[in-house]
UniProtKB/TrEMBL annotation:
Pfam family, one: Pyr_redox_2
Catalysed transformations (reactions): a menaquinone + NADH + H(+) = a menaquinol + NAD(+); a quinone + NADH + H(+) = a quinol + NAD(+)
Protein name stated in the entry: NADH:ubiquinone reductase (non-electrogenic)
GO MF terms held by the record: NADH dehydrogenase (quinone) (non-electrogenic) activity
Topology within the bilayer: Single-pass membrane protein
InterPro entries listed in its UniProt record: FAD/NAD-bd_sf, FAD/NAD-binding_dom, NDH-2
EC assignment: 1.6.5.9
Signal peptide range: none
Domain FAD/NAD(P)-binding span(s) in chain numbering: 34-358
Any one GO CC term of the record: plasma membrane
Ranges of biased composition (kind: Low complexity): 1-22
Cellular compartments annotated: Cell inner membrane
Length: 516
């Protein structure tokens, strides 16, 4: 496989024609069709795997080293699952796919004329050429123009988000215990606010309620965890709007049975360290004192759609999603496919199945072009249904015309999510943890640290983030480091040889008289 991740590019071939690249031992060698996949989420992973048997080389570029099963992030945040169970290393997942390689880096630029992708990690820039490009970079949390809310209300889009929220949730109970021992108020510490009544918000609110009423009820002495107040807020008039009015009402009733306070028709106007401010349709305002707040109210397409729009003229919608052709390509660039949360096509929802099916469609289109076959029909999404858990043994499911609730829906949710968890060992451990948490009351992943809670904020106060914490890769520094390592290696080898000599000669522990 030819290395496509060179520091510079001298150009690439267009369309499906072959190109040449330098190979060790040969001046030039034929280069296979190069496919670059941006993102390691559902779209990126399934698109890469769909090209396993193809006569192409695939380079996946992603800002993380793992494939994230995002629908189960809330279970990491509430101590049910470990992060490794829902985020296996991408390299491990693709280890057996010989035509695939993985590069770590955040894509900062796409040159559609030169057909190159520029990525960076800790100040190290890399340029990768492509013949075909699949952009599956996903989306981020949207605060609807109020990005400063993120400082005090983390989203739920990454492992970092989930671990920070885990620290904030369990840390709030610990701080409440201390405050109660000192005779101070604990109301603001034991109030948990979830903004957004979509699937993520509903699942998060339900699990915090269960956590406080089942898991932690015997763990504290100065407070009663069952007194925790869990508030779910949404500007819409119902819970789970995409599921329809009937299932939305059913979900609201089930949440209220758990003790969740559901507030609808209220917009968030301010968020600070100590609480959150709401505004109702009748202009009333309300302040809720809460230290632990989480945001699950909206999404924004990855910023790469902006650079794609500038180069193709394709329009963006309010959520930053780019309008694509019916075959998921961009105007004037049939070699570029965009899939998943980033596209605006036929009112498709931002769910995993749209990304998976779109990525497979793009991979098939690339294969057909290389084989000289006629193009496919326009992309058509097959809706496999939607599911959301409310609490243990309670869920809602919308599958075609069927609307299911309760234990049956929960079992269906369990089976479907288990099927899409990547890796056999992760499936086994997930089942064991679910048994502990749902049949029993324990949660095995309750470890939380200050670094998890405050690391994001600390990094955000650095002008260049983590890049400020390391030295640039200067050539002289690298040479000096290499020389120092070589000297140390020789020293360690000499020590090892002397240790072996002492053992073999029987001299260890034997006192030698000084020569006169």
């Amino acid at each position: 496989m030819t290395d496509t991740s060179t520091g510079t590019s001298s150009g690439t071939s267009s369309g499906t024609t072959t190109a040449t690249a330098a190979v060790a031992g040969h001046p030039e060698a034929p280069r296979r069709h190069q496919v670059v996949v941006i993102g390691s989420g559902f779209g990126g992973l399934f698109g890469t795997k769909a090209l396993k048997g193809s006569d192409v080389d695939v380079t996946m570029i992603a800002r993380t080293t793992h494939h994230l099963f995002q629908p189960l992030l809330y279970q990491v945040a509430t101590g049910i699952l470990s992060e490794g169970e829902i985020a296996p290393p991408t390299r491990e997942v693709l280890a057996r796919q010989k035509n695939a390689s993985v590069l770590l880096g955040e894509v900062t630029a796409i040159d559609m004329d030169a057909q190159t992708v520029t990525s960076q990690v800790l100040g190290r820039e890399n340029v990768t050429p492509y013949d075909s490009l699949i952009v599956a970079a996903g989306s981020s949390q949207s605060y609807f123009g109020n990005d400063h809310f993120a400082e005090f209300a983390p989203g739920m889009k990454s492992i970092d988000d989930a671990l920070e929220l885990r620290g904030r949730i369990f840390g709030a109970f610990e701080l409440a215990e201390l405050a109660a021992l000192q005779g101070r108020s604990t109301d603001h510490l034991l109030t948990f606010v979830v903004v957004g009544a979509g699937p993520t918000g509903v699942e998060m609110a339900g699990q915090i309620a269960e956590l406080s009423r089942r898991t932690l009820k015997r763990d504290f002495r100065a407070i009663s965890s069952r007194d925790a107040r869990v508030v779910l807020i949404d500007a819409a008039g119902q819970v789970l709007p995409p599921f329809g009015a009937k299932l939305g009402q059913k979900t609201k009733r089930e949440l209220e049975k758990l003790g969740v306070e559901v507030i609808l028709g209220a917009m968030v106007t301010d968020v600070d360290e100590r609480g959150i401010t709401l505004k109702y349709k009748d202009d009333r305002t309300e302040r809720i004192e809460s230290v632990t707040k989480m945001w699950a109210a909206g999404v924004q397409a990855n910023a790469l759609t902006k650079t794609l729009a500038e180069q193709t003229g394709a329009p963006l919608d309010r959520a930053g999603r780019i309008a694509v052709n019916p075959d998921l390509t961009l105007p004037g660039h049939p070699e570029v496919f965009v899939v998943g949360d980033m596209i605006n096509l036929d009112h498709l929802p931002g769910v995993a199945q749209v990304a998976i099916q779109g990525a497979k469609y793009a991979a098939d289109a690339i294969d057909r072009r290389l084989e000289g076959k006629p193009p496919q029909k326009p992309f058509k999404y097959f809706d496999k249904g939607s599911m959301a858990t409310i609490s243990r043994f309670r869920a809602v499911a919308l599958i075609g015309r069927f609307r299911l609730t309760g234990f049956i829906a929960w079992l269906m949710w369990l089976v479907v999510h288990l099927f899409y968890v990547t890796g056999f060992k992760n499936r086994v451990t997930a089942v064991l943890h679910w048994a502990v948490s749902f049949v029993g009351r324990g949660r095995s992943e309750r470890t939380a640290t200050e670094q998890q809670i405050f690391g994001r904020l600390a990094m955000g106060r650095l002008d260049r983030g983590a890049q400020e914490l390391i030295s640039p890769p200067e050539v002289e520094d690298l040479l000096e480091t290499t020389r120092a390592f070589e000297a140390r290696r020789q020293e360690l080898e000499a020590i090892a040889r002397e240790e072996a000599r002492l053992t073999d000669s029987g001299e260890r522990g034997v006192r030698h008289e000084a020569e006169v």
